[in-house]
Amino acid sequence: MIARTVPTLRRAVDNLRKRKATIALVPTMGALHDGHVSLVRLARRRASRVVVSIFVNPTQFAPTEDFGAYPRTWKSDIAKLAAEDVDIVWHPGVEAMYPEGFATRIVPEGPALAGLEDRFRPHFFGGVATVVGKLFTQCRPDFAIFGEKDFQQLRVVTQMARDLDLGVKVIGSRTVRERDGLAMSSRNVYLSPQERQTATVLYRAMKDSAGRIKSGEAIAPAIARGARTIEAAGFALDYFEARHAETLAPVTTRKDGPLRILVAAKLGSTRLIDNIAV
């Protein structure tokens, strides 16, 4: 079923609830790839019914970013979701999500102010938190599935659901990668053939730095080496950092807690993000 208005969605969700169904939500912006399909399959394992939202959210794009050019592949998306037996596709227009007079925003703190994505996209997490908060109240899921590739986003959404008592268990799903290690992303289609080959440097640099840290090298020089590798390949590096895997706080040694290496860098006109556990 495809729902395009809140009342239609609510009726569909109510019908599922009457049958004692558990519901998992997979929020997406469309342009679905195998990474998204893996989220849907995890949702199916966690709940008896699956709702997938497709909404390109304008409030998380800055004026200089690619909202208008963001890939939209509706027919292909629906075919993928039908093949996975998704129960409801929630596909609202902008007017349904942000009707005239809309004047309320969620302003997240904590992991949203970690000095990673928020340093370069200060508008982003307010837009994400607001739209995800709406999706949670519209769909009323028991579970919500998010990919670990957007790791800071996963932490922000998890904190928001907990802080606001939204009754949703947020579950992170491991990053799905191409055979050469590049994290699957809807934005990969923007890469030229040469850039696509170069893009694998991000994963290799993270793996190298993580291996050095695991073998006892201090964090600072291991991270510095990875950053140099990425810049030497032609990337414009925004950040390449080791952080606490739960709080995203800066770390200086492995004793500071579980670690995550996070990277954001621009190759040509395409900005890529990724992360791995240490």
UniProtKB/TrEMBL annotation:
The active site is at 36 (proton donor). HAMAP family: PanC (MF_00158). (R)-pantoate binds at residues 60, 153. This is Pantothenate synthetase. It is an enzyme of class 6 (ligase). InterPro entries: Pantoate_ligase (IPR003721), Pantoate_ligase_C (IPR042176), Rossmann-like_a/b/a_fold (IPR014729). It is found in: Cytoplasm. GO terms for cellular component: cytosol. The gene is panC. Keywords: ATP-binding, Cytoplasm, Ligase, Nucleotide-binding, Pantothenate biosynthesis. The reaction proceeds by a bi uni uni bi ping pong mechanism. Its main location: cytoplasm. One of its GO terms (biological process) is pantothenate biosynthetic process.
